Amino acid sequence: MFDLRGQLTQTQSIVLGIIGGTVLIALWWVLAEILAVPALDYRAPNLDDPALQNLNRDSLLRADSILFVNARQVGKIYKILPTPLHVVQAYPKLLEEDNMIKHTLHSVWLNLKGYFWAILISFLIGGLIGFIPLFNGLFAKPVDAMRYLPISALTGLFMLWFGLGDGMKVAFLAFGILVYMIPVIVQRIREVEDVHLQTSYTLGAGNWQTLRAVYFPSVFSKFMEDLRVLTAISWTYIIIAEILNNTGGLGSLIYWLARRDKTDKVFAVLLLIILIGILQDRLFVYLDKRLFPHKYYKTRADGLKEVQTGIYIVFGVFALSILLPLFVSIPGDLLVQGAGLVFLAALGLIVMGELKLWKSLEGV
Predict the structure, then answer these.
(1) pLDDT tops 80 at residue 69
(2) Considering the domain boundaries, does residue 127 fall inside one?
(3) What's the pTM value of the predicted model, to 2 decimals?
């Protein structure tokens, strides 16, 4: 366990992970107790009390000091850092009092829309720069330099350009992602191995066939790993955008909770964002395994075709849900119902494929 770059067994990884998590929670709890202040059974004198009207200022201060000195400690106030128990206990209150589910769905939807536009624009621009030397010479260096832009400092410009609605949030998030994504796509295009390209040309493939059979699988298979890295960046920018105009979302919720000194609820929302980020990361891992099985399986497995078809249908429904309202006026309820039915059908196809895949790989 102490060798340089040594490997842990699965059991060791699980045990050490549990121990590490327990230690962190214990340290968090101890620090919360240290920073807590005592809660006293003390109430300042009511100046409207008729019995106090005839007392002068010195007498009032003396009476107040006596009450404060004789006050008993009745608990602790965790204003700076709540304990893990207080954070867990805050979730029912968030559900009942603060519409946590509504804010969460709002932020997730904005996050997904930002990803959609960032990926679409990045592949268009990155493809031109990566494939065509003219555009590479013109724009490669300026686009690469955009990574050093302080994105959070551009919030004023995005508010000026896109207003204060959800469009501004999506545009801000998409821009924050694509300034990192475009150079990555260009780099992935350059990393395609020459041996695959030479084989393709030897077999008589044209430019479009080479793009479809060599470049697209290679770039997309590596790009899924890059998306996992960008997940944390996306949540940072969406929270910043939601704080700017407090009209909904987890960022807006955090802002108002902090203004009311609800630190236990603030930490609960922060942990929720971490959980969503972890789930997104696992989702990208799953998509990578199913859409690019050659990276994980050395044999042909039944059921992959059904799973891939279901995933592509889900992608199509998601893309149409974003694009259609831009060109066609569709009632929101009708759009949600139609997309929901197709999504459920695609989900059923994915489940069926997963069952076949599990049976085919059971003996492998």
Answers:
(1) no
(2) yes
(3) 0.82
